[in-house]
């Protein structure tokens, strides 16, 4: 039996997430996710295939991944700081995931932000729906527009909340939005 706390480790060890490139927000790009100049040095924009864009906060530690090994990015392994993901379901087949030490956030098509800091992952949905699973327990919730969840390593239940505008604005400002 596979325990939920081992999901991330097993996925990486088994090659489910084939790492395409590694680095920090200042030095990463792959063939179908070239860097695009950002308006500010505070963030980096990856203009991936049509229908997929990723904005990463400066100093973020992340890796792009190709889970099915088809040469296309379909996941971000985010260990620190924030990322904004925009996925158009009509153009990106198979969905997209953000994997953090505490959570896995997966979508078919939407716009959402993920923030990793101090043993906590926060997920905010700006458009569409996002499924978030807690790595330590396997518990999952589905978020809609304006909803968020804070995920830690404890065994406590996930609680979906409607984020207030000040919290949304603070995160979006870090991502140049």
Automatic annotation (TrEMBL):
Any one Pfam family here would be: FecR
Q: Which InterPro entries match?
A: FecR, Ferrdict_sens_TM
What is the residue range of the signal peptide feature? 1-27
Supply the alphabetized keyword list: Signal
- Please report the stretch or stretches of sequence annotated as the FecR protein domain: 78-130
Cite the GO molecular-function annotations of the record: sigma factor antagonist activity
Task: Say which domain of life the source belongs to.
Answer: Bacteria
Name the chain's protein: FecR domain-containing protein
Gene source species: Rhizobium tropici
């Amino acid at each position: 039996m596979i325990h939920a706390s081992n999901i991330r480790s097993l996925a990486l060890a088994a090659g489910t997430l084939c790492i395409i490139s590694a680095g920090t927000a200042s030095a990463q790009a792959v063939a179908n996710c070239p860097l695009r100049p950002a308006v500010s040095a505070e963030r980096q924009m990856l203009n991936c295939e049509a229908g997929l864009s990723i904005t990463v906060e400066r100093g973020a530690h992340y890796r792009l991944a190709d889970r099915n090994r088809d040469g296309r990015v379909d996941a971000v392994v985010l260990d620190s700081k924030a990322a904004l993901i925009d996925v158009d379901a009509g153009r990106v087949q198979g969905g997209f995931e953000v994997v953090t030490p505490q959570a896995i956030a997966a979508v078919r098509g939407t716009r959402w932000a993920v923030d990793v800091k101090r043993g906590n992952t926060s997920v905010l949905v700006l458009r569409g729906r996002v499924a978030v699973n807690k790595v330590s327990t396997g518990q999952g919730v589905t978020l809609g527009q304006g909803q968020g969840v804070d995920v830690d390593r404890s065994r406590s239940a996930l609680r979906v909340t409607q984020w207030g505008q000040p919290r949304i604005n603070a995160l979006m400002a870090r991502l140049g939005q």
